[in-house]
């Protein structure tokens, strides 16, 4: 399975033409991929209406826009030039959520709030999986998370007040941990993503997820 972002986002070209895309190349982003196994074999053709849009990661207010293969929930930047977050729901059951990361400075390093790849992802993933279940999509479902534009950044820990030790910065960019297979809608999302989240922390020079 190829999890290359450019290959599984069929609508990116369409949104680029409309000025809705997040800037992938020059700003840090977190990208959530959700791919039902049934989507890989062409088994789904979900009926989608205006009320089926999904809220973007981290945000509670958004706009809705249909496209050829699905529906997008997106939130614009104040200047309107591009979006700061969007989530696509495809008719085949795939979901892709992209959110711009806003790092903060601590000394000579930029740090990322771990909520971007923990709390915000857990909350959104729960909502997205509920929608897929509501639409009759069945497990197993593959979940992957990507961080890009993070080179030289660290993870903010200790209430975001402490310094980051030398070497405690991301060593991989883009960082795409191994996908997780969700086998039940009843299971805890946080538990199922534990290994994936630990891999992100280790790449940034930590032993594992900070408690």
* Fraction of residues in β-strands: 25-35%
Shape: globular
Mean pLDDT: 81
How many individual domains?
1
Per DSSP, the total helix count is 6
Describe the sheet with the most strands.
Answer: 7 strands, antiparallel
Could you spell the SSE succession in H and E letters? HHEHEEEEEEHEEEHH
Low-confidence residue ranges: 1-21
In angstroms, what separates the terminal alpha carbons? 32 Å
Structure description:
The protein has one domain. The radius of gyration is 17 Å and the shape is globular. The longest helix has 16 residues. By secondary structure, the chain is of the alpha+beta class. It has six helices and ten strands, in the order ααβαββββββαβββαα. The chain has a seven-stranded antiparallel β-sheet with strand order 2-3-4-5-1-8-10. The two termini are 32 Å apart.
Which descriptors apply to this entry?
211 residues; alpha+beta; seven-stranded antiparallel β-sheet; three-stranded mixed β-sheet; 6 helices; 21% helix; 26% strand; globular; disordered N terminus
Can I get a quick summary?
The protein contains six helices and ten strands; from the N terminus they run ααβαββββββαβββαα. The protein is an alpha+beta fold and 211 residues long.
Q: What order do the helices and strands come in, and which of them pair?
A:
Layout: H1 5-8, H2 12-18, E1 29-36, H3 37-40, E2 63-67, E3 70-76, E4 83-90, E5 95-100, E6 104-106, E7 109-112, H4 119-134, E8 141-148, E9 154-155, E10 180-182, H5 189-192, H6 194-203
Parallel strand pairs: 7-9
Antiparallel strand pairs: 1-5, 1-8, 2-3, 3-4, 4-5, 6-7, 8-10
